[in-house]
Amino acid sequence: MKLAVVAANGKVGRLIVQEAxxxxxxxxxxxxxxxxxxxxxxxxxxxxxxxxxxxKDFDVIIDAFGIWAEDxxxxxxxxxxxxxxxVENTDKRLLVVGGAGSLYLNPEHSLQLYQSENFPEAFKPxxxxxxxxxxxxxxxxNVKWTYVSPAIDFRPEGEKTGDYVVAGEELTLxxxxxxxxxxxxxxxxxxxxxxxxxxxxxxxxxxxx
Length: 209
Fold this sequence. Notes:
The chain has 209 residues and is α/β, with parallel strands linked by helices. It has one domain (2-208): NAD(P)-binding Rossmann-like Domain (Rossmann fold, 3-Layer(aba) Sandwich). Helix content is 28%, strand content 22%. It is built from 5 helices and 10 strands; from the N terminus they run βαββαβαβαββββαβ. The chain has helices at 11-22, 52-55, 75-87, 124-138, 183-196, and strands at residues 2-6, 26-31, 41-44, 60-63, 93-97, 144-149, 153-155, 164-167, 180-182, 202-208. The longest helix is centred in the middle third of the chain and has 15 residues, at 124-138.
């Protein structure tokens, strides 16, 4: 498998690259500036400038792009749509590092986490923008996409336990009634998903037991 990680210099992207490298996977870091990852192969190019020619040799593309500036939140949808355009009508798979805010709180899937009363106001614009990007991706029936939401408590410095669960679209808690996962365990889950070729056309979630 030939793998590319877009926005690989970010915290999640770097750990995904490291996980892939540790397993001997052929991984290319796609970055806008100097490579800060463990990848030996690097494509230095802005995400929005990528072409079909740039990605023609990859089997799986992992989108680790994220932006937090409120005046740029529309780039979440724009970036996903651009990458989807590059792989549409091919066997290439697009895996997206998603958010937890769009997870559902009820079986009817009518209420998302970010729409709930207790969700922090400061994070609602970001969560709403990421939910919109997922909604746009759902319309792409000509793309082999998978959207992977982390747990609510997504810990950058958390330890790698290797003990995680793949769940569905509804917020799922562990035995301690917690929704937690470290970046490192999320990276492991993402690489496993890339290797197993499951969950095509689905949004899933991952959390620590």
